[in-house]
Amino acid sequence: MTILRRCTLQHADPNQNYRLSTLSPIYDIFALRPTTEKALQQACHSLECDVISLDFSIRHHFHFQIKTVKSALDRGIKFEICYGSGVLNADGGSSRRNLISNATQLIRATRGKGIIISSEAKTALACRGPADVINLAAMWGLHQERGAEAVGREARSVVVQSEMKRRSFRGVIDVIYGGEAPSEPVELEKQDRRKQVKGKRKAETLDEYAAVVEITPKPASKREQKRQAKRARQETAKAPEGTPCEILANATGSHENAPPETFTDGDAG
User: Which end of the chain, N or C, is less surrounded by CB atoms within 10 Å?
Assistant: First the structure.
């Protein structure tokens, strides 16, 4: 269970907001509650906040302009509807009427987008379950699917976006801890396993690579193959015809059939 810190600041004068930038990084969720039309326009257009939480138990003397509300939605700011005061109805019914009127007007301006629903309950009697809240929002003109998102997904997105604003660089890049780098023996073992799986072990040094290159014979080119074939044909043409046995018999027979040598007296002397 995680407990978050939230600050809801009532904003009435647009000229007195010089310390808002220092309050935003301190809290997990920073919400503004504008009470005038100029304050609402400034909160939607320029002020840095996570949620715009309006007091719907009172009657506002201004209307929610579509362009003003859309500029806040484009910046990722959510609008909050608090139903606690309207459920208790402690003031004779005026807070309930104002809640229905203001919530219907806001849903019409936002087209049901970027809305979160909370209780703002000071007692347990003002709290309602998620299904009851979805049915209550359907009476204001919010579709059931949008109502379920207002209770669940939209509320979670506020927490995630506010955390990204505090931790990340301009709300885009976040550096997380990915663990320590593995030691060198572990890396060497992984490399050996990869080499064994592939079935071939590559030379790890230049000397081993040179030795492999020297041992491996270089394949002959097509021109060299033609020369070797021509040389073999020439050697075959020079050799005598017949089998080796026939060649040996012919050579022996020629010596036996040769005429005997005659010697004269002069040669004998």
Answer: N
The residues pairing with 82 across neighbouring beta strands, listed in sequence order, are 118
pTM to 2 decimals? 0.59
pLDDT at 267: 44
The least confident of 7-21, 102-116, 253-267 is 253-267
Closest CA to 55 of 29, 81, 73, 79: 81
Given strand 115-118, what is the order of strands in its sheet? 6-11, 29-34, 51-53, 78-82, 115-118
| Chain centre distance of CA 66 | 34
Residues constituting the chain: 269
- Short-list 161, 72, 152, CA closest to 110: 72
The angle formed by the CA atoms of residues 22, 55 and 51, to the nearest 5 degrees, is 40
DSSP characters over 88-135: H-TTTTHHHHHHHHHHHHHHHHHTT-SEEEE---SSGGG---HHHHHH
The C-alpha atoms of residue 153 and residue 110 are separated, in whole angstroms, by: 17
Q: What is the mean pLDDT of residues 110-116?
A: 89
Determine the pLDDT at residue 255.
46
Angle subtended by helix axes 130-139 and 144-151, to nearest 10: 130
The per-type count for the chain, helices as H runs and strands as E runs, is 13, 5
Distance CA 130, CA 206 (A): 70
Sign of the CA dihedral with 134 first, then 135, 139, and 145 last: positive
Average pLDDT (246-250) is: 52
> What backbone phi and psi angles, to 5 degrees, belong to 83?
-100, 0
